[in-house]
Amino acid sequence: MLVAGTMGGVLTPSVASAKSTPKFVNQDLQRYYKSAKAKSAFHFATIQSTTNSKKTAPILVMGDFGSDPSIKYGTITSLKMSKNNKVLTTKYRLLNFKQTGDKTTTSVSKKTYTFKLTKKSTNKFSAKLTGTKANRRLGTSGTTYTYTRTKTSPAQAYATKYVKPTMYKKYLKAFDSIDATQAQKEQVATQYANEAVTNMVKNFNVK
User: From CA 21, how far away is CA 23, in angstroms rounded?
Assistant: First the structure.
């Protein structure tokens, strides 16, 4: 039998008996999910509301550590558990950020996206990634990947392993026309790649 619980304003199910495995439990929405094959990770978090500083808002944090590294935030509009307690359907709207000078403004997309998280075992789940390159996100169509549930954030490991070499190559190529020695170009490319790693980790680990 499900018992309603909350995690940072997000409704989560808990299961009364261990015999219910692999059904969802409260801890599932308090963990991180990672897929090395997809070079992707995500987690649910709670942040301060952009419209009311006294309130908090549940969000979905999606980290793409692939060929076009990015962090996307989705404002959760609904969570629905299946009758067998094995599939969690999440609806969300993407947060958009616009930089004008030193000022950053935030807006919420009008379109609502959906993705389903299916529990296969205690620490194994499946979800689909849709879109390509910089537009990859969790959805209901596309390629299905297996995600591993983990207590610790995979951001540092994934950013170091995947993002750093990717961004290093991109920066080095961008510096081809710069009047500098190869060693200087490599040094600057390394510096920028390290900064990209730091930003990815910081933005993914938002709470």
Answer: 5
User: Do 130 and 178 sit in the same domain of this protein?
Assistant: no
**Counted domains in the chain:** 2
Residue 60: beta bridge partners?
A: 44, 74
Residues 6+ apart with CB under 8 A from 194: 164
Integer Cα distance of 92 and 94 in angstroms: 7
Please say whether the beta carbons of 60 and 44 come within 8 A.
yes
Residue 165 lies in a domain: yes
The per-residue pLDDT for range 65-122, each reduced to its tens digit, is 999 999 999 999 999 999 999 999 999 999 998 888 888 888 899 999 999 999 999 9
Contact (CB, 8 A) for 158 and 34: yes
Query: What are φ and ψ of residue 27, in 5° steps?
Result: -60, -25
- Same domain? For 183 and 125 the reply is no
**Number of residues assigned to the chain:** 207
Q: What's the pTM value of the predicted model, to 2 decimals? A: 0.86
For residue 21, name the pLDDT band (cuts at 50, 70, 90): low
